Amino acid sequence: MDTIELAKSIVSKSIQKGADECDVFISIDDEFSTTIKDAEIESIKQAVTHGLGIRVFKNKKIGFSYTTDFSTFAIEKAIEEAITLAENSTPEPDNKLPEIENLNKNDVEIFDPNVFSINVDRKIEIAKEIENFAKSYDPRIKVESTGFGNIIQRRTLASSNGFISEYEGTIFEIYCSTIALEDGESQTGFYSSVSRFFDKLQTPEFVAKNASIKALQLLHPQKIKTGKYPVVFDPITSATICSYISSAVNGKNAYRKMSFLFDKINEKVANETITIIDDGCLEGGIASKPFDDEGIETKKKLIIENGILKMFLLDSITARKFALPPTGNAHRKYNTIPSPAPTNFYIKPGNKSPEEIINEVNEGLFVTKLIGFGVDIVSGNFSKGASGLWIKNGEIAFAVDKITIADNLSNILKNIIIVGNDILFFSNIASPTILVSEMTVTCD
Description:
Layout lengths: L2 H14 L4 E17 L2 E19 L2 E7 L4 H16 L32 H18 L3 E19 L4 E19 L2 E11 L8 H13 L10 E7 L1 H14 L2 H5 L20 E4 L20 E6 L2 E2 L6 H6 L8 E2 L7 E2 L4 E3 L6 H6 L3 E9 L9 E12 L2 E14 H6 L1 E4 L9 E2 L3 E10 L1
Parallel strand pairs: 7-14, 13-18
Antiparallel strand pairs: 1-2, 1-4, 2-3, 4-5, 5-6, 7-19, 8-9, 8-13, 9-10, 11-12, 14-15, 15-16, 16-19, 17-19
Helix pairs in contact: 3-4
């Protein structure tokens, strides 16, 4: 299917039918996944999903429709529906397409041709290897499931402002989910490896080992006294903290005053150890792409620099509300209109290892698992269930479970006093190990 020509024809027809402006976003995902349990295939999936979204502007009003049917009849119906919705919506002065000043696109490496040469049998074999490694790691380990997945993403964008382009990307993932059993007690562990490139996945043995360790280290938890303690977050849990910050610097949330950072541009909002980056052209990044979902070239941006909030993540319409240029952060699915979202969003690594950070703590908590929701981006209030390891005299002492950690995200940012060197991207949001100087830790 020539999606470029299809998108161009939809733009042309929309203008002919009365739209002032129009853009078309076409999404095609070719996905494979399999899960293994007890050496048997528990599930296997091979599917292609596709759809296209049509956004039209008429008299500063927006109409949107989408379809998964690429027939001429269905597309013409979708165009008419989008125009009708625009005619009956509320006008806003910022409702128009972005001006594309630079029609060049980044040359980012995000597609692995190996995706076509790895057959299904090999994918199943890899998932089985992970299970075997986990089972042999420790007799106390029971493997809940292991899996292999990959996806080919194809994206096409055409706009009446002159932008027409497309790209392809691949993502591979392997994972292991474990249960550690001993003396009638059980703890769960999970570990995955995600990459744009098959050859850059961590080994099945490494994934199995880490999933096993994460379960085993939580066995036999002990009680602690409620109080205020230093808290260390590992790369998985610190990435969760980072995800809340990405929501707080989302321009749409900031404009609506639905973020505790809405009025803090150019102010110190974090410890000077903290620099947070959003990089849409990071080589091999999970969310890297040559242009955002409105055709704006992606780039590397300092969101927080040495503790100072520098900018929000903006799509074109939100950017106009701030009288600023868009930042290359428009994101959409075929069935949604664009809105701001992070690309590869991460805390810049420091120079200390996790072991060195733990050595800095006399008594405190090392968080390896966060549970539940309990976060309000508007106020910044943070309260979540957690599990992990207790630190005494700079060393891991014992496991802790069924605890709650609480503070405000504003305080957490200001109290991150050490940033580790062990960043690892499990998704598009990542962070190294971090040390927060003090949080309230409550034992249930």
